[in-house]
Amino acid sequence: MLDDGANLLAAFRDSYFGRRSDFADMGSYESAVNGRGIPDMDIQSLGPESIELLMRRGTSFAWDALHVAVNLPGKPSLLARVSVEPTLMDATMYTGYVTFFSAEFAESMGIGEENDLPGLQVVLASEDCVNPLPD
Predict the structure, then answer these.
(1) In what order do the strands lie in the sheet with 94-102?
(2) pLDDT of 111-122, one tens digit each?
(3) How many Å apart are CA 54 and CA 107, to the nearest integer?
(4) 25 SS3 class
(5) Most C-beta atoms within 10 A of its C-beta, which of 23, 44, 45, 55?
(6) Is the separation of the CB atoms in 108 and 25 below 8 Å?
């Protein structure tokens, strides 16, 4: 949904309690509202062996959401960043995130820049998700 110029996932916006005025730019606001952890409560061990499963879950969720966005009025160009990285409390355990934002904010969100951050990142564009994933 479009909310005050921001492309937001409606369900995520309804459960987000921050204020737009707390963010310096629209990309940061979209990222905060549209970012969520990848469910991992059913994974027995969140060590390095969980990275592949977390990435698959996050990537398939992102693909499905971007596939829906392809058919939205105005066809907004959206990106999803799927990442898996060590947790802050224990560097031997991993957690995953999916964050959606408008493609126009890619540069300000650090997409395409080299960094030395730990973990793995994949970026999907809505234009690449025209077809649904197979069952």
Answers:
(1) 35-37, 94-102, 78-86, 120-125
(2) 766 666 667 888
(3) 25
(4) coil
(5) 55
(6) yes
